[in-house]
Amino acid sequence: MSILQRAIQKSLNEKLAEDKRKADGQPVTPVLPAEQFDANKSDRIDIDFNALQKLGFLNPFLPSIGLSEQYRYIKRPLLANAFPEADNGIKNRNLILVTSSLPKEGKTYTSLNLALSMAMEKGKKVLLVDGDVAVPSIARLLGISEQRPGLIDLLDGKVATINQILLHTNVPGFSVIPSGNTHSYSTELLASNMMKKLTHDLSTRYSDRIVIFDSPPVLAASQASILAQLVGQVVMVVEAEATPQTVVQDALEKVDSCDVVGMLLNKSVSGKGNGSYYYGSYYG
């Protein structure tokens, strides 16, 4: 039985908590008022969670029972791999890549919700990195100015330290690195030794930190395959009843360099109600 078949079977066999969010599809990226970038401004942003919640995102301060419970279920095996009681042999196990086979399957929605859910863990810090450098969404979702330097600017040497691109938020322990300015050779920058050193530093410097990378879709850009080589865990988001199994299998082959590849079945509707979403996952 293939990974996809096991993922689907698992999602069918397990009853997940009901998501009360009523929506007809993946939330669209909101157009929030972006800050005006000031090089002298404090490296902190205040996320408008009321705006995000209206679009169906998790609000860590006012958790909806269904959505919060679903992400508690999803994050648990990831956290167990990242912080094992004994060495599990997974290199960079606290670095997690969230991707999909194709665009619009919900990988950015998953990345942000997963990061916010993990930020609620006591004694843990979460860093969300927008690695979708060609079509970044995190900055627009969080109202971050597109002028702000980010990951690509650090790799290209336009900024000197990670502190210049890291943004703290109004959620304790939750920080963000935007993708930064567009670059003609962004793929090569992600494959550079600088990126390898950066991911190694992120993985080892803080023992209590989880780093989540929002990645381009695997079959839309080669960057996802490159990033998969640098992380310890990959979450493959699959749109239920939409993405062909052969397409998912092709995408899985392109990220099989990672030690742990997980499946997340997105937009799987329960028979108990239309518009409710249920998530299943398989890790192996």
Note down, in words, how this protein is organized.
The protein has 284 residues and is α/β, with parallel strands linked by helices. The protein has a single domain (3-18, 40-283), classed as P-loop containing nucleotide triphosphate hydrolases (Rossmann fold), CATH 3.40.50.300. The chain has 10 helices and 9 strands. The chain has helices at residues 3-13, 49-54, 65-82, 107-119, 138-142, 151-155, 186-190, 193-204, 223-228, 245-254; strands spanning 44-45, 95-100, 125-130, 167-169, 174-177, 209-214, 233-239, 260-269, 277-283. A 9-stranded mixed beta sheet has the order 1-4-5-3-6-2-7-8-9, with helices on both faces. Helix 3 crosses helix 4. Residues 7-42 and 272-284 have low confidence and may be disordered.
Summarize the helices and strands and which ones pair or pack.
Blueprint: H1 3-13, E1 44-45, H2 49-54, H3 65-82, E2 95-100, H4 107-119, E3 125-130, H5 138-142, H6 151-155, E4 167-169, E5 174-177, H7 186-190, H8 193-204, E6 209-214, H9 223-228, E7 233-239, H10 245-254, E8 260-269, E9 277-283
